[in-house]
Design goal:
about 425 residues, alpha+beta, four-stranded antiparallel beta sheet, 11 strands, about 15% strand, rod-shaped, membrane
């Protein structure tokens, strides 16, 4: 925005100079205005001297001759009728007519320009006796249009641009702070209320942003508090029913009741964990992302699972995030890959502008294209061969992918699923985490 404002101002200054230059060029003025007035005065004096008796006039005109002007009295004008006219000639003729009360046919003017600075100005004036005063003068010419612009453009533009740049920076400082804070909030961070400074419009936007963030914080806290209360209230009847189920004599009915109650307990606890959204409470800090991935792989290997890591570069990869939250998303994706695809292969790729991509591949059957988005919904499971009780034993209630997407999006990233084509590896499912720089 600052560059646009300064560019518009610069464009306005250039346009102003262009308009002024067009007026000058259209005017056609070539003799400096002060020098033109002097030329008129000299010619008028010469005419008055030439109006004296002829002998006296010749002596006076000879005495007035110098290196810059020559005056002569003769029977005719040394300028032809068809001499070229212009703004300067017309202006000189008008002044002489007014000053000497001469008719237009008693004045002849010719301007011959040699270069940008030198020219010959010839003025012929008819005296009352019918003779002609012929003058040759060398006026001071106006500078070429580029010469004044070399001075006027920098002098009029640079100070204005410096002052405007300083003020624009001051005006846009709160806007930049607001943009930075909004970017942090999009990553799930908590930011302090921004100071309300700057122009009235910037203060209004900052106030609205602070109010929005406060309302968002209260909403999340109220939702978490409400779900916590619901979870707490449900635990008591679930526990009571569990105790009563122990008193059932029928072993099959007793086992079914206990299994259902255990399922309810796990669902309540997992739902509460999902609603709390750890991204809101964990502090953001800089970590080594490659080390975090290695840690996830080592924990999976310790459990006897087939998990591998591939990275496009070696060394540390600093990244600001909430490591526990991001690790939770990665663990959920690896758990799914191992559970339904036998093995998991992790890859860390860096893209243009510092963007990061984490891929988790498995060798499973994949997912139908029309179901790739549905699996992110809470409590949705697409494997009909698995009973709910079997998945409960593995801690799966259909929230793993929903939690993983929530964690990734809280970092300003994106989680997507896609089926691999099977060219490099056997066909399977690929989970892709895209993280901003």
């Amino acid at each position: 925005m600052a560059g646009q404002l300064i560019g518009l101002l610069l464009l306005g200054l250039v346009a102003a100079h262009a308009i002024g230059l067009s007026v000058v060029l259209t005017n056609g003025e070539t003799i400096h205005s002060i020098s033109r007035d002097q030329m008129v005065e000299h010619a008028a004096v010469a005419w008055r001297l030439g109006s004296l008796p002829e002998a006296q006039a010749r002596r006076a005109l000879e005495a007035a001759r110098d290196g810059n002007a020559a005056y002569a009295l003769g029977p005719g004008a040394e300028i032809t009728e068809g001499s070229e006219q212009g703004y300067d000639q017309d202006a000189i003729s008008a002044k002489l007519q007014k000053l000497l009360a001469l008719p237009p046919d008693a004045i002849r003017i010719s301007l011959l320009r040699h270069d940008a600075r030198n020219a010959d100005l010839r003025i012929a004036l008819r005296t009352p006796a019918g003779l002609w005063i012929n003058t040759l003068q060398h006026p001071v010419m106006s500078q070429a249009w580029m010469r004044p612009l070399r001075f006027s453009v920098p002098v009029s533009t640079l100070p204005v641009l410096v002052i405007v740049f300083l003020f624009v920076r001051r005006i846009l400082r709160p806007i930049k702070a607001l943009a930075h804070a909004a970017e942090r909030v999009s990553r799930g961070e908590q930011v302090e209320p921004l100071p309300v400074t700057g122009p009235a419009e910037a203060r209004e936007v900052t106030t609205a942003f602070n109010l929005m963030q406060e309302r968002l914080r209260r909403f999340v806290e109220d939702r978490t508090r409400m779900l916590g209360a619901i979870s707490h209230d449900l635990r008591t009847p679930i526990t009571s029913l569990r105790l009563r189920a122990e008193l059932v004599d029928d072993p099959r009915l007793k086992a079914a009741m206990i299994r259902t109650l255990e399922e309810m307990r796990v669902m309540v606890e997992e739902t509460l964990r999902f609603a709390r959204d750890d991204a809101r409470s964990e502090d953001t800090r800089e970590i080594d992302l490659r080390a975090l991935l290695r840690e996830v792989v080592e924990e999976q290997l310790a459990q006897g699972r087939d998990v591998q890591l591939r990275s496009d570069a070696a060394g540390a990869l600093p990244y600001r995030c909430r490591p526990v939250n991001l690790k939770r998303a990665l663990s959920n994706l690896v758990d799914n890959a191992v559970r339904y695809g036998q093995r998991a292969r992790l890859a860390l790729l860096t893209g243009a502008g510092g963007a990061l991509q984490i891929q988790v591949d498995d060798d499973g059957p994949g997912i139908a294209a029309d179901k790739l988005q549905e699996v992110f919904k809470p409590f949705v499971r697409l494997d009909p061969s698995r009973s709910r009780s079997q998945d409960q034993g593995n801690g799966n209630v259909g929230l793993g992918l929903a939690i993983a997407r929530s964690c990734v999006e809280a970092h300003g990233g994106r989680l997507a699923l896609e089926n691999r084509d099977g060219q490099e590896h056997p066909a399977g499912l690929r989970a892709v985490i895209s993280l901003p720089a």
